[in-house]
Amino acid sequence: MADASAPYRIRGATGEWEVVIGLEVHAQVVSNAKLFSGAATAFGAEPNTQVSLVDAAMPGMLPVPNRECIRQAVRTGMAIEAEINKWSRFDRKNYFYADLPQGYQISQLYHPLVGEGSVTVLTDEKDEASARTIGVERIHVEQDAGKLMHDQHPTMSYVDLNRSGVALMEIVSKPDMRSPAEAGAYLRKLRAILRYVGSCDGNMEEGSMRADVNVSVRRPGAEFGTRTETKNVNSVRVVMAVIEHEARRQVDLIEEGGAVAQETRLYDPDRNETRTLRSKEDAHDYRYFPDPDLLPLELDDTFLAECRASLPELPDAKRKRYEAAGITPYNASVLTAEVETARWFDALLEAGADAAKAANWVVAELFGALNRRGETIDQAPVSPQGAAELLALVGDGTISGTIAKQVFEIMLETGQGAGAIVEERGLKQTSDTGAIDAEIDRILAANADKVDQYRGGKQQLFGFFVGQTMKAMQGKANPGVVNERLKAKLG
């Protein structure tokens, strides 16, 4: 069995290689309007129905920065404890493509809004010792381009400018990741942070979060090799697949006497391979210069204080709070992975549920039921308050854990409250020693041979007697009383 703590290595014909990974994540800012215009940003609108004169680059149109987009980017920077630059500037990145009506993209090359920060990840959710800190070099804000559609006409491509001008945060990591698993953990954690903050919905299927994957290989500990960049990858699973394939391709190429070209590549999921898109451009190829239509951004202390005050409890802080309340590190990690789960669980705690027992129940029972039903926690038919009522009935001995499972299934199907179900169906647990003694006497009499075996030293038969008693009482007997009375009678 492989050692999970061992460093990730690619075995080549000439020895071992190490992979070096950096991710540039493009996250669409949650805002009702675009970065420099008032046009709407709703996903799924009819093509070219959300395009202002600014987005279409009509002559004489001047961009005006959207305060909310800047605020969301600053809040994101604060969430990863990054340096916030009070003075930043917009630059024009010049290139010509059919989905870029201006002939340039407004971005931030030289003076980004957010400087260095970091994201801490667990490569193994059950092991705190697997924590790794991944550096973030910068976050800058920029406009998105439009979208070319090649499948609408046999000989022509159509252009949809709805996305043109939408605000993006480009979150650039340092080349600190050394395995596909680390890159996957980083992307999942970054997505969670963005969704907690509310600055990006993290919906990778809709393209509101996508990654450019930079990969190079080297001998362990040697100088960095030449990297390639695979563009616009929109799932964690595919990011990991890209890294595995591209690292192996580079190792094979180098060992065969070739050299890795610095270039931009695309991933083909059907063939599980990357292929060349274009040779990699450098900054001078884009002829960057300060945007003459936009003044520098200058942030004051009041604005920054408002941004910081608006931040919610973030995943790491929430996880530590859960662990301090007696929840296992694994359960705490699972419960904080998605913001909707954490909110649901917090509501369960506020309704009075015991933290550790509630965590076990949510991870085992609730998640199991939702998986079977194909539902998310937002669609759960049982509310946090309803779940708290069910757990309270178990906690005070009104029903057993076995009966609780039955009650929960009825709650899922009918939407009824736990208390009402228990009352209507006569499911209350009995601690009546007279009734329990009567059933135990009957069972011991019917199984005299097993009683003799137990008294002869076969202690494991005790579980058999408990099971028979619970079955005879239809799961309604108090297990503690059953154990106590059986011990007394078996001697």
TrEMBL record:
**Database matches in InterPro entries:** Asn/Gln-tRNA_amidoTrfase_suB/E, Asn/Gln-tRNA_Trfase_suB/E_cat, Asn/Gln_amidotransferase, Asn/Gln_tRNA_amidoTrase-B-like, GatB, GatB_C_1, GatB_Yqey_C_2, Gln-tRNA_amidoTrfase_suB_CS
Q: Into which EC class is this enzyme placed? A: ligase
The entry lists its GO molecular-function terms as: asparaginyl-tRNA synthase (glutamine-hydrolyzing) activity; ATP binding; glutaminyl-tRNA synthase (glutamine-hydrolyzing) activity; transferase activity
| Catalytic activity, reaction form | L-aspartyl-tRNA(Asn) + L-glutamine + ATP + H2O = L-asparaginyl-tRNA(Asn) + L-glutamate + ADP + phosphate + 2 H(+); L-glutamyl-tRNA(Gln) + L-glutamine + ATP + H2O = L-glutaminyl-tRNA(Gln) + L-glutamate + ADP + phosphate + H(+)
Pfam families for this protein: GatB_N, GatB_Yqey
**What keyword terms does UniProt attach to this protein?**
ATP-binding, Ligase, Nucleotide-binding, Protein biosynthesis, Transferase
Domain named Asn/Gln amidotransferase: residues:
343-490
The protein's Enzyme Commission number: 6.3.5.-
Its GO biological process terms?
Answer: glutaminyl-tRNAGln biosynthesis via transamidation; translation
Q: What does this protein do?
A: Allows the formation of correctly charged Asn-tRNA(Asn) or Gln-tRNA(Gln) through the transamidation of misacylated Asp-tRNA(Asn) or Glu-tRNA(Gln) in organisms which lack either or both of asparaginyl-tRNA or glutaminyl-tRNA synthetases. The reaction takes place in the presence of glutamine and ATP through an activated phospho-Asp-tRNA(Asn) or phospho-Glu-tRNA(Gln).
Concerning HAMAP family, the annotation shows: GatB
Q: Give the similarity note.
A: Belongs to the GatB/GatE family. GatB subfamily.
How is the quaternary structure described?
Answer: Heterotrimer of A, B and C subunits.
Q: What is this protein called?
A: Aspartyl/glutamyl-tRNA(Asn/Gln) amidotransferase subunit B
- Which source organism does the UniProt entry give? Sphingomonas ginkgonis
Gene, per the UniProt record? gatB
